[in-house]
# Entry
Amino acid sequence: MTLDLPLIWGLILAIGVFMYVLLDGFDLGVGMLTFHARSDEERNMMTATIEPVWDGNETWLIIGGGGLFAAFPKAYGIIMPAFYLPVLIMLAALIFRGVAFEFRHKAVRKPTRVFWNSAFFGGSATAAFAQGLMLGGMIQGINVEGGAFAGGAFDWLTPFSIVVGVSVVIGYLLLGSCWLVLKTEGELYNRARNWARMSLVGVAIAFLAVSLATLAIDPSVGARWGFTMTSIDFARLLPLSPAPIAGMALCAWLWRDLSMKPGPNAAPDWRPYLLAVGVFLSGYIGLGVSLFPYIVPFEYTIWDAAARDNALGFMLVGAGIMLPIILLYTAYVYSLFWGKVKPGDGYHG
Amino acid sequence: MDFDALLLSRIQFAFVIAFHIMFPAFTIGLAAFLAVCEGLWLKTGHEAFKRLYMHWVKIFALAFAMGVVSGVVMSYQFGTNWSVFSEIAGSVIGPLLGYEVLTAFFLEATFLGVMLFGWNKVGRKLHFVATCAVAIGTTISAFWIISANSWMQTPQGFAVDPATGNFYATDWMKVIFTPSFPSRLAHMLIAAYITTAAVVLAAGAWQVICGRVTKPTRWQMRMASMTLAILLPIQIMIGHESGLIAHEYQPAKIAAAEGWCETAPIQGTMLIAWPADNACGHAGITIPGTSPYLFAGTPEGEDLKGLDQFAPEDTPPIWLVFYGFRIMVGAGLAMLGLGLWGCFLWWRGRLDEKGLFHWAAVPGGALGFIAVITGWIVAEVGRQPYTVYGHLRTVDSVSPVSTAQVATSLLVFMVTYAIIFTAGTVYMARIATRGFDDDPKGPKEARRPPGSPMGAVDEPAETGEDIVAAD
# Structure
């Protein structure tokens, strides 16, 4: 039996992108929420929850870029030029945000401090929005002719992609505020619960809006879910329905957790983040159902765009050994920094 | 010259990668330096080494962040601007970059968190392990990147798919270990150590000039001088070896770097030349008849190819390669001088008495970066007009994107990098030149907020009347 290497790599890439979303998602979300910080102290408390891990989180984005290059060079060569400007916006935003982690602490004069603080939340928000624009652009399809991108510089910019962009921003806000619920105490903790509730409402609306728009945007997507212009094919819809239903149920559960009064019977603080990840996962699976097996929707499947089997096999050896190790030490580092960030949690002994 | 998408993409790539390489070059060396300091501290219990570690780790955190953000750009750059290259060479070069992410990137990025924020969370030994993991990660990273780049210089172990025109690997060991790879990897790693040593020496010298000599200052100057004095002779030999290999596989590059205009059995070494067009005919100072010594491996009776042997469309831009090479060698020799001078002063016991040496060492901190960038110019411009040497031309590698888009992105990168480079340099220089007269047990009660772990940053990094001095 031979392995279906493009399929395996498609899965690895999908998992990598999801890891990115759920990890960098929360630290981009926290970055955006620093906008609401009432004092430097509160802002620093918020960034302290993500400082030890943001760098590792962002590395999953390189799996997105590098993995696509390595495993699906044809898709990489089409998608990147197609999203030339949103990629540029995202990179510029991530640059400002990444250095702001360090620079904002070094700036002492007020204007420069304000500048780097703004770069921090502005960069976080812009990066999230640009990622949403690209996701929207992917779903609506890319104009390909003769094996190369053949569209215009602004093909990705449509009302739909803007809606998806906003949705991703709201989604990251949910992840970020749930992360703060997990990592903080006191006043900030209470405010984080409020932020989480608000963004959860936004997520539920965005979830619905993007799902419906996705069904409408391409007839083939609607057909996969059993929707045609005139009828609903329940035989198709029913087996797929657990994903959206689970998404809705998780939203409700998360709402209930976030609304509980603090006390002995309250939900544990790690649960909101986990439930938010569940909400994302159900949406992600729904997306997978809509697009699989296309990697350049609706032009090239993962098999059309894959690198040579010997390249995929060579990399699979490395990934098979390294990915479990990476997951292990990532988990180790997270467990090391487990628990609430406390005032006075200094770095020197 | 036409400012089309191709030329702008080349300028953009050169710009973002030249910017990026400064940070890995510095952090590879600095990570090793930190590991040595922490190891020495654990072994000897000498407080000076811990203070050195605590001091330089702050700069490391800044440089690493700048390296990460400019590195993410690189992993998208191939696709946005060089999509045809990516598709044609992707099945060969992609896995090398994939291996870099898997074996190096995660290691550095994840353990950096422990290194910076883990002092209270893990024991000393485990913390040392984290520092070493970061240092090893940066080195593995260099391994894969130089491997990928060396394949582009001296490609082998691949074939062309007749149906698609795409390359595919036939022998992975040959792809990874190309002829130019071993010497280029060694050359780059040592360049990183040298670059860092020059910076460390400059920072120490500045403290001497300011009259703030403490034990850590003394140690950092000794370690840096010794590193320069030992590594530069080795670096020159490895660089020479690398040049011989390039001469065998990329004769046009060496002809341009040496300024050999005509093919001859014996060539001279041109020390300096006056600018000419992108053609031969420099007027300059030449030491005649050096090639039998420098290129001793050339078989008897075989001519050394000059630029007249290559059609203009197969020749790299000569002046960039030519002057880049001279600046690199000059910077290297200057650093060798600094290292020997420093060791001499150490021997005479005058290393921490303010003098001419210290005034020379301060600007000398930039020499490593200058050598790294000009060295890469020689390597990469010398590879032109190809992306995959001899197999894929640069002109056939570029993405189908509009000139306006590339102009926009180039502008955005220039503005962005100008801002973060200026700020980063100011902040790093500020920390680097501070003395060690702070409390050895660490910064005082947090000016930085509760929970903010990273002491990286309790010091004000700017001057201004509203600043309260750190100590």
